[in-house]
Amino acid sequence: MYDLRYITEDQLDALKEAGNIGAGNAATALSTLLRQDIDMKVPAVRICHFNELIESIGGAEQPLAAIYLTVQGDAPGNMFFLLQPAEAELFVHYITGDESFSWSNTSNDDINLSALHEMGNILAGSYLSAISDFAKVNMQPSVPQISVDMGGAILANGLIEIAEESDFTVVIDTVISLSDPNQQQHMVEGKFLLLLHPDAFGHLFRALGVEEDD
Amino acid sequence: MIEAEILHVGIADAKIVAYPQHLRTAGLGSCVGVVVYDKQKRIAGMAHVMLPDSSLAKQTQMNRNKYADTAMDDLIANLLRHGASRSRFKAKLAGGAQMFSFMSSDEKMRIGPRNIEAVEQKLREYRIPIESKDVGGSNGRTIEFNTDTCGLKIKTVSKEEAII
C-alpha cells in the first residue's frame, strides 16, 4: 500500500499528466465519433477526504447519471463518468437522435441506454488505454454500468477498497464538454473521476518514473 | 417554539444529539445508516458505516466510525455517557443497497448486505430491538431522524418520501 501522506508534488504532477493524456484521448474519440468539437479542461489531481470528494460532485444527495466501471490490472481502481441527469438525456438525444428518451420512462432494454453504455465503453476504453500506453501499465476496464441516483450512493462504490486503508483518496478529475454548435454555452458537461486503489500507486509511480527513494 | 436544528452525519461518521436537535445523513448506497435512541430522554445517535468489520482494517490509526462493529460500540458507549438508558434503547436502520449489479465473485459487490448483517449482529449482541428498517434494494437513500417523534424519514430519488 501507499501512504498518501507522503505523496510528493512530482507524483501528483505525474498523475495529472496521466489524467490529461487519458481524458485527451477520450475527448478525441468522442469528437471523432460525434464529428463535433469537445472541450477539455486541465485535469485536477488532489488528495481529499471522502466527504470532500462527495461535496465536490454537488453533495451526497445530488442526483447524478453515472457510467461506472472497475479497472483491473497493474493499476486497479474505479472510474466514473458523471453527468447531470438532464444533460445525460440531452447527450443520449444527441447520440441516438431519439428525443423521447428520458430517465423517467426508460427500461433496461431501452436501445438508448445501450447507446449510453457503448459511449461509456468508448470513453473509458480510450481514457484507460491512453494511460496504459503512456505509463506501460496494464489497465483493463470492466463492462460499464449505468445508474441515476444520489451522488454519495454512487461514489461510495468506488471507495470501498480505499476505505480499508484510508479515509482519503487521490482524485484524478477531468471535465469534458460538448458544445451546442448554435450556442455559446456548453450542452453537456461530463466529469471523469479516476479513483485508484492504494495498491495501484506503487506500480504506477514506478512506471511513471516518480518513485520515491526510501 | 424551539427551533429545530438538524445535524449532518458524513460518510464514516457518527453523532449523538438530544431534542430539539435532529440527525440526518445523505446519499446512503451500500453504506448503512443506523440510529439508536432513547425515546423518553429524546437522545439519539446516528452512524453512517461503510464497511462491516474492523478486523479487515489495514490502517494503524483507523477511523472507528467507518466500520459497523466499532461504530456501534462507540455509538452505544457515547449514548450512555450522554445519559441515555440502555434498557430503553431501540434502533432503526436504512441503506445497504447494491447500487450496481455487475460482477459475480467480487465480494465487494455484496458489501451492502454485509453491512446490514454486521449492524444487525451488533444490535443482537447488545439486545437492542430493531423498530423498523428500510434496507437492501438498488437505490440510494437519505435519512432524517426526528428525536421528538423518533420517526425516520427516508428520501430516495424516485420514490415517495416515507417515515418508518
UniProtKB/TrEMBL annotation, chain A:
Pfam families per the UniProt record, alphabetical: CheC
Domain CheC-like protein: 11-45, 113-147
Family annotation (InterPro entries): CheC, CheC-like_sf, CheZ_family_phosphatases
GO terms for biological process, alphabetical: chemotaxis
Gene3D superfamilies, alphabetized: CheC-like (3.40.1550.10)
UniProt keyword annotations, A-Z: Chemotaxis, Hydrolase
CDD domains xref list: CheC_ClassI
Domain of life according to the entry: Bacteria
Record-level Gene Ontology MF annotations: hydrolase activity
UniProt name for this protein: CheY-P-specific phosphatase CheC
Native source species: Terribacillus saccharophilus
TrEMBL record, chain B:
Naturally occurring in which organism (per UniProt): Terribacillus saccharophilus
Recorded family membership: Belongs to the CheD family.
HAMAP family, per database record: CheD
GO MF assignments: protein-glutamine glutaminase activity
The name this protein goes by in its record: Probable chemoreceptor glutamine deamidase CheD
Keyword Metal-binding: no
Pfam families: CheD
E.C. numbers: 3.5.1.44
Entry function: Probably deamidates glutamine residues to glutamate on methyl-accepting chemotaxis receptors (MCPs), playing an important role in chemotaxis.
Gene3D superfamilies in UniProt: 3.30.1330.200
Gene Ontology biological process terms, A to Z: chemotaxis
Protein keywords: Chemotaxis, Hydrolase
Name of encoding gene: cheD
Catalysed transformations (reactions): L-glutaminyl-[protein] + H2O = L-glutamyl-[protein] + NH4(+)
Top EC class, one word: hydrolase
Record has Hydrolase as a keyword: yes
